[in-house]
Amino acid sequence: MSWCALPSFVGMLAALYAALNSNKYVRYPANLYFSLLSFLVAWWCMGQWAVLPWEIYSYRYFFAKLQYIGIAFAPFMWLAFALSYSGYNNWLRKYQALLWILPGITVFAAFTNDYHYQLWRSFEVIPGQLASDIEYGPWFPVYALFAYMAVLAGTIILILRIRSSSGRWPQFIAVSIAPIFVLIANMAYLFGLNPLPVDPTPSGFAVSSLIALTALRQKLFSVSLVARREIFQQLADGVIVIDHRLLIVDRNPSAQRLLNNELAIGETIDTLLPAGFLGKPENESSQMKLGDQWLDIRFSAPLNLNNHSYGRIVVIRDISKEIETQQALLSTQAQLEELNDKLDRMAHIDELTGLANRRRFYEQLGQAWSICQQLNNDLSVAIIDFDLFKQINDTFGHQTGDRVLSQAAQTIQKTLREEDLAARLGGEEFAILLPGTDLESALYLAEKIRKQIAKSELLTNDGAEFHMTVSIGVASLFSGSENADALISRADEALYFSKQSGRDAVSFVRMDGKIRRYPLHSE
Fold this sequence. Notes:
By secondary structure, this protein is of the alpha+beta class. The protein folds into 3 domains: 221 residues, Up-down Bundle (Rhopdopsin 7-helix transmembrane proteins); 89 residues, Beta-Lactamase (2-Layer Sandwich), CATH 3.30.450.20; 169 residues, Alpha-Beta Plaits (2-Layer Sandwich), CATH 3.30.70. Helices cover 54% and strands 15% of the residues. The chain contains 16 helices and 15 strands. α1 runs parallel beside α8. The chain starts with 5 loop residues before the first helix and ends in a 6-residue tail after the last strand.
């Protein structure tokens, strides 16, 4: 192999290396265009060095046609890569066919040149020389103009993309220099200034691909380009970028302000965050109080091109006002719940005795009646009234009367089951709702309450001791009651019978409708 073929051979190897490694450093779908560009350049270089040792016309002419597959499409693949890398994939998908038209015509012109001579007017092999004597046809300058425009447009697009983020001069220089090698090599060849006997343009493309790949490999086109530097600097939320060693790679001024820390590059961040924070799932909130401010801290784990997590992006947000508002809302909610409880208590609880009031009793009676009707269960009620209570108020005063009612309420409540309900209907009259209780059990309970109240020691304001008795009327569903009101009415009748038959007694309505006094057992 002649030494003149060495640039093409090295260019082919460089282009193949770039093509095979682009997926490691360039994201989809830009990596596809970059790989195709590199393969086209490798094809171009291969066609050039493979033909140099031969002086056979048909051989050189055939390989010249094959080279045009790379020559025609490479500049436009550079443009396609620039568009895709810069985020114009939607536009590229829509108009991609336009990029293939001109290169396709050029390749067609190369393989059919013998019929029209639009690409080459003449193609001759010079004996003893590596170069061929070529006179280009009218289509070549048209293609060359558009090829230059494609390379220039792709370069400008990449430069504008990089310049949108400040502090990225290495990328800017790399993208600016890469196409210069192509332009210098090609123009030197066209204007006869090339020291080599062969076209150095494919080698220039290979060098450009290698420069671009090196820039990508060194992370000169890193993920930080995605977020424009100015926006990153001006974000109200704090952002900290850390690597896999938990060392700070980048941060914005808001992060420094919120954490009240310089956050020097290379410093570890583990001690600045809440304990166990980085062990939480992505985007799960952690809250931290720092001084007078509350901070919401979350992180995400961006993926590299091989879909492996590398480092963390920590986002810090000041939620002090939100916490303050939330606490105010919770306080207001607690006050409202307390007020509602108080109102509910006032609506359903008797203030003096702490028992249910009349309204509550009749609400529960209606519900208990419906349930017993559906399930065919027992239901009993007892109505209690103090004997000669007016004399207590007139003799000892209303304060003593209130104490009597309150103490009696406690006695009644202690005697009942959890499912039973005691209520003060008004004045000195009480009622007991006994769901699931038959008449015999209700009478036993009423008699027990009567005895306990009769034994209770009561005191006047002066400390004098006295006793009180009660009369009780009991009724049950099995007493022939037709509805809840009838049940209460029959209990009232039984109570009246207890009063009329001497007080201090328990009476009930029998199934035949007759009222009888419950037998008194000896103490």
